[in-house]
Design goal:
The protein is an alpha+beta fold. 47% of the residues lie in helices and 19% in strands. The two termini are 49 Å apart.
Length: 802
């Protein structure tokens, strides 16, 4: 069997979207390797089909990255299960010393891995145990102080706000340096343009200004040429501006480079700010936990808290880990996770999830999951990795960009050479200038940056409203939904069942029948079984259950042992009896005569040793916004709404009529649901998409079979998050319509950028070819269009009004 290996890499310093595409394409050419590049999170995912040495593969990948983008630092992404620590090494300027620190920290006992990002000055340590982390950090600090006495070690957990401030300060310093360079170059450019200088002095002033403004571009272009990377923006700008110098257009050569660099700077600022804006949409990561140690409370990183520990959450603080309230009562703001503005009341015994914000009371919480397995951690991981699953539009742009630039460069060469040879009196310098304009316009950055940014923003905006979309491809697919198929229980109905009626045959009391049903449902996690256990209200002694068989789509069969189950059932339980509990199909399957029941609700029939004993009716309620959800979907153009349920036909039809569904199919087994879904799938158009919406408990096969699987009520449900393509983090079906609206808004903005970028570039290519446009307009068609497209893409994050 082929064993697949996966690895995620972080490309620190990657700012060029076009280069990111080249990296992805180049790596995918390696046999047996699948690479996915997420430019927005700078994450490169590598998957091997097996047989390859992973270290060799990673070396090849790093060589490719360094060849295309030499300044980018490749580091392995540390997948953390709650035992990771990030240290900021302020004042670290020696790369050689950084390598020594990294190697020595790796040798500390209990360290699984250590990675030092020299550019970001971050030392990331992953340990085998949370409880060992304090000792490891102390030893790492000693190593740093020994090798670099002037370096200050700041411990601020992982991705904390203080760390972000350090990163932002670093960005600001970098931007200030660029502004100073551009300012000095700009002043020299103005002096050269205004003053009447001798030819040699004029050339000197413009040449110095050119080196100050464009020296970095020239250097990168030369390095890339030696690496075989010719057709990139550095090369194009270098050729275009050097060409302007050659034909004597000194001011234009400097001015265009100045304009280009200013545009690139604003583009970089816009991209970074958009990243921060998207990150702030999901700013749900807790910075600390108040760990109770004896009678004291200690502030620690969430990763340091273990299962079973007690934490204190004060008013205004985020709940750092999933757990159960053991003391206190409060109102919880769940909007960061669910998009709901109405606070949720919690008290002792209630479960709370990481990311909730405590509004008033002090809570003591027993931790149920480590941070790496907590809800907030999983949600952040889903959102951050969602854009690795690319939409068709993104793939089209990637493919388009691959051919677009070379075609334009070849066309530019033809414009420079052919007309002077064919047209009488044509000037070579004139046509070369036109060709240079072509070169400047040819960079596809406006598309390569803004399209992924648009989808990334759409996913972030959806998350803010409580809708987790696992990939750009699913967000795009929501635009073509024709059929929405719903499960009933827990999806359109509340799934909060109550025993409303008990009918017995002679020989059994209601309490005895309920007790038998409780034993039959003692291992069930289905809402119906839970409602029976709740109505029974006592502890079921599972030690008396000899065998327990769950019959899919029918019910359960148990054999109960014991001398006494209750005072009136001594004789019944002496030898152990077989109890059947389930629907009418189970009774038919076992050839048991039963009562035909027309009650609206779920009916559980019971039989003891093949003799009918009676039935229990359990009722469910339709959710308040289910009807509104169906109406909204119809208004958005969904052609068919369907409900599939295992309940009785009378129950299904009543709910379907109440909600205005087009079709209802009842009394279905799990396999029947898949077959019915496939039949519905054949009825839609080739382009149309089919959604299945389930509660994530027993719907995995159908969720997987649909074009888009949506899990309802998936907040904290591992099964739902795993099986579905989209997770609605509340129990509201109306969120599906919200998700479709966000998808349509995202598509509109993405296509606005495509049409705008290609339209402007097309116009200026024609104007440049006819000698109407100058290089100034050409630079606008490149970097100016990029900045405008990026700013437009950021609008997708404004999801307050849909």
């Amino acid at each position: 069997m082929t064993v697949k290996q996966k690895k995620e890499l972080i490309l620190e310093g990657l700012e060029c979207a076009n280069c990111a595409t080249k990296i992805e394409t180049e790596i995918n050419r390696i046999s047996g390797i699948t690479a996915t590049m997420n430019f927005m999170t700078k994450t490169l995912s590598i998957e091997t089909e097996g047989g390859q040495d992973l270290n060799v593969v990673l070396n090849n990948v790093k060589n490719i990255v360094n060849r295309i983008e030499s300044h980018v630092i490749v580091k392995e992404k540390v997948i953390n299960k709650g035992s990771k620590k990030t240290l900021i090494l302020m004042g670290l300027d020696c790369a050689n010393c950084a390598a020594k620190i990294e190697n020595q920290v790796k040798n500390i006992s209990g360290v699984r891995s250590s990675t030092l990002d020299f550019m970001a000055k971050k030392l990331i340590i992953e340990a085998d145990s949370n409880h060992e982390m304090k000792r490891i950090v102390d030893e790492a600090t000693t190593i740093v102080n020994k090798l670099e006495p002037d370096v200050k070690v700041i411990d601020n957990g992982t991705e904390s706000k203080s760390e972000k401030k350090v990163d932002e300060a670093s960005d600001e310093v970098s931007y200030k340096k660029e502004f100073i360079q551009l300012g000095v170059g700009g002043v020299l450019f103005l002096l050269g343009s205004i003053l009447k200088l001798p030819d040699w002095a004029e050339l000197s002033v413009f040449f110095i200004a050119y080196l100050i403004v464009g020296g970095e571009v020239l250097l990168r272009a030369i390095k890339n040429i030696f690496r075989g990377q010719v057709f990139d923006e550095n090369f194009l700008m270098a050729i275009a501006t050097i060409g302007a110098f050659i034909i004597g257009e000194f001011p234009e050569g400097v001015g265009v480079m100045l304009f280009y660099q200013v545009g690139e700077l604003f583009q970089s600022i816009a991209v970074n700010r958009s990243r921060k804006s998207i990150s702030s949409l999901m700013d749900i990561r807790p910075d600390f936990a108040n760990l109770k140690v004896g009678d004291d409370v200690k502030k620690v990183a969430p990763e340091e808290v273990a299962i079973g520990d007690i934490i204190i959450v004060k008013p205004g603080e985020k709940v750092p880990l999933d757990g159960k309230v053991i003391s206190g009562a409060s109102m919880m703001d769940t909007s960061a996770l669910t998009g709901e503005s109405v606070p949720r009341e919690v008290e002792a015994g209630n479960e709370v999830l990481s990311g909730f914000i405590n509004k008033n009371g002090v809570l003591e919480i027993e931790v149920a999951k480590e941070f790496g397995e907590s809800t907030v951690s999983k949600i952040l991981d889903l959102v951050q990795n969602a854009s690795s699953k690319k939409a068709q539009t993104e793939n089209f742009i990637t493919k388009f960009a691959r051919y677009y630039t070379p075609v334009v460069v070849i066309t530019a060469a033809a414009i420079a050479v052919i007309p002077p040879m064919v047209i009488s009196g044509a000037s070579f310098s004139d046509w070369l200038y036109r060709a240079l304009i072509f070169l400047v316009i040819s960079c596809p950055c406006a598309l390569v940056i803004s399209i992924p940014l648009g989808f990334f923003g759409g996913i972030g905006g959806a998350s803010k409203r409580g809708v987790l979309v696992k990939g750009s491809n699913y967000l795009e697919a929501l635009n073509d939904v024709e059929t929405v198929v719903f499960d009933k229980t827990g999806t359109l109905t509340k799934g909060v069942f109550k025993v409303t009626k008990i009918v017995t045959r002679e020989g059994y009391s209601k309490d005895e029948l309920l007790e038998l049903a409780a034993f039959a449902e003692s291992y069930s996690n289905h809402p119906i079984g839970i409602s029976i256990l709740k109505a029974y209200g006592k502890e079921v002694d599972r030690g008396r259950i000899d065998t327990y068989d769950e019959i899919s789509g029918h019910g359960t069969k148990v054999v109960i042992l014991g001398e006494q189950l209750s005072s009136g059932m001594l004789k019944l339980m002496k030898k152990g009896k077989e109890v059947l509990a389930g629907n009418a199909k189970l009774m038919k399957k076992e050839n048991i005569s039963y009562d035909e029941v027309t009650a609206v609700g779920t009916v559980v029939h019971l039989a003891v040793d093949k003799e009918y004993a009676g039935y229990i009716v359990i009722s469910d309620e339709v959710k308040e916004d289910s009807a509104k959800a169906i109406q909204s979907l119809k208004a958005l153009g969904v052609k068919t709404t369907v409900m599939l349920t295992g309940d009785a036909k009378v129950v299904g039809e009543k709910v379907g009529k109440e909600l205005g569904l087009d079709q209802v199919y009842a009394e279905l087994l799990p396999t029947d649901k898949v077959e019915k879904l496939e039949a519905l799938d054949k009825q839609k158009s080739p382009k149309g998409k089919l959604i299945f919406v389930g509660d994530g408990i027993n719907d995995a096969p159908v969720l997987a079979r649909a074009d888009i699987g949506i899990a309802m009520g998936g907040l904290g449900s591992d099964a739902a998050i795993e099986a579905a393509d989209i997770v609605i983090m509340t129990d509201e079906p109306s969120k599906i319509a919200d998700a479709i609206k966000i998808a349509k808004r995202t598509k509109t903005i993405v296509w606005q950028n495509i049409v705008f970028a290609l339209g402007v570039k097309g116009i200026f290519l024609v104007l440049g070819a006819f000698g109407i446009a100058t290089m100034w307009e050409a630079v606008f068609a490149d970097v100016g269009v990029s900045v405008i497209a990026i700013l437009n893409a950021m609008r997708v994050m404004k999801v307050e009004k849909l």
